[in-house]
Amino acid sequence: MSLRFxxxxxxxxxxxxxxxxxxxxxxxxxxxxxxxxxxxTHQVARQFLSDEAYKSLMxxxxxxxxxxxxxxxxxxxxxxxxxxxxxxxxxxxxxxxLTGTTAEKHDSFFTLKSDGTAIETFDGDALIQQEPDASxxxxxxxxxxxxxxxxxxxxxSSPAFIIDIGYGKTLCIPTIFVSYxxxxxxxxxxxxxxxxxxxxxAVDVCNYFDRNVTHVxxxxxxxxxxxxxxxxxxxxxxxxxMCGRTVFGHNSAKNQQLEDHYFGxxxxxxxxxxxxxxxxxxxxxxxxxxxxxxVAPAQFECAPIFEELNLAVDHNSLLxxxxxxxxxxxxxxxxxxxxxxxxxxxSGKHNNWSMATNTGVNLLSPGKTPKTNLMxxxxxxxxxxxxxxxxxxLRASIASAPNDHRLGANEAPPAIISVFIGQYLNKILQDVKxxxxxxxxxxxxxxxxxxxxRSIPELLMDNTDxxxxxxxxxxxxxxxxxxxxxxxxxxxxxxxxxTIMAATLRQFKKDVDALIEKGEKKxxxxxxxxREYIVASEKVLFEGNNYSxxxxxxxxxxxxxxxxxxxxxxxxxxxxKAKKLFADNNIYTHPELEARHEIELEKYIKKVQIEGRxxxxxxxxxxxxxxxxxxxxxxxxxKGLKEAGLSEASYASQKQLLENIxxxxxxxxxxxxxxxEARKKANAIENTREKAIAYCExxxxxxxxxxxxxxxxxxxxVDDKEWYLPKYRELLFLR
Length: 735
Ligand code: ADP
Ligand code: MG
Description:
This is Glutamine synthetase III. By secondary structure, this protein is α+β, with helices and mostly antiparallel strands.
């Protein structure tokens, strides 16, 4: 019996009860009772550290600095005491290398003293810094140029936590990962720099309005979409196992057209899985808030309450890991790929982003007074200007082989970056544009400010999310970057967004100060620069349907970039403009940027290459054998009917079917061979960018759809019981 039928059998024999109970035994009723119980929170630190160590740790967190060496041993001891009180035996530095998943290398607290007696230790050095074998992580040539080794260093702004899933409990220390000469090799190091750049630039601008602002934090609330499939069926699909997406599979008769999944109740088995991974997330302090079905069958979403950006990024990376692990308990698999199934929606990860001051003001929330509304307007218009000026860099930050399947595929925002702000804010911007003129005086200024303030109530009523098609939408008190892919590390787009915002705000301050120096009153100067920025960036605003063809044409007329594929989109990372942007803001040096560009291209090549290989393998060893066996059956049937003396008309349908099948068999195998040739040619190309382009255009675009079409046709023609690969209707509708 093929794996497919075994999986289908198992599925119908499985008792739901065996899958429903959370296996980790947590039955506490209230979330608050277990929230963050596996996190070294400030309260826990208070309890396990001496006064001195506690103060030192808090000071480092506040200043965003490494912890004091002289305190490291004390802090490490406190953390170990806490961890051991929870039964932890091992620790690891937990980091986010550019491979896209999280990395851990476990070490035991256990060690031997010189006399051979066993002892448990965790010293300051082990807490602060480690040297994982850096050679197995991508460095884009940095290592060759600089220094072979890399090290991880604790980032105390993100608290230590305990992973307690399956066997053993591990203390995880969130770290950055850098080369010995300081080049960043991960997602976190540049993110922290971008957060700091934004803080500095935003505080300066806030101080025009409020002297009490001393700190600005970026905030992120992500929404994670994912698919869930049965483990047995998953295991019978080598393409899912190898690349997280199905390279073959005909649409099932029913898809998402009835929207019955979106509006239906959550399937029991998935519900049990959700509750289980949510519990694990709560213990880790991830504040999950919503869960629901998504549009496509077997597609779901979860989202937390927003948090400080760095922590939110860690929590998303952690969530993806936890989901994957907990799914195994329920004999389910989570698909985080952007496009696991053709013909139905893919998955995204909306990034809701804003900025908050130490005085408790959300800088993207319309204010309560005319003055705070002017501050809101300044930050709002600066965001639009940043996105306008650096749309290409923002696009590059979400470019990946899997996300290419979504962007512009009439289900996700297009590759054109535009901003949706809604009718009322548009009106306000138009007002500012018309009324701020050369003769604009103090009286005009206060009238305009009051008029803006008057329209805020209307605006608040308008903050419903009416345009689902926009890649970058204002949703009342935050911007929502929707083009991010479901498997992405949020740090990549967030590093760029915060950097371009920092750069724009710094320019804004310069421009305003220049006018003030010329003798302009502060608030009038601010209005003038806001007006100038509105005029300079309004072509990035779009209120219509982003999925429409007219928009692609209109965007072209406006001169907005529309780069559909990753190898070209990534070019924007290494333009002179980008190099200057990242160097000026102290995020990436030129070599670091070149290295990242190289790494992204290599990731692209590898992903497309793996898909090509699995396609060839499945076509040759799974699909063709099934098709040929059925072909033989037909041949014998026709032969038999002929021998029995029947007329040609009596086996006309069999003949027709046979011809059809034979045609697809031939096309399938000849295209697979040609694709393998094209891959060989691409592999021979030295230059990484050209190789990526060859993989995109000569391999993927030329062959993948074509090959798939013939395979999918055969799926419809061949006897169902001969077919090895679980079909879409099984993957998507059975659980
Ligand atoms: P909806 O958009 O469904 O009405 P919300 O506006 O509450 O729901 O939030 C959607 C997402 O935006 C949530 O993940 C939430 O945490 C996040 N979010 C809300 N406010 C902010 C903010 N100020 N900064 C960042 N993210 C936010
Ligand atoms: Mg959303």
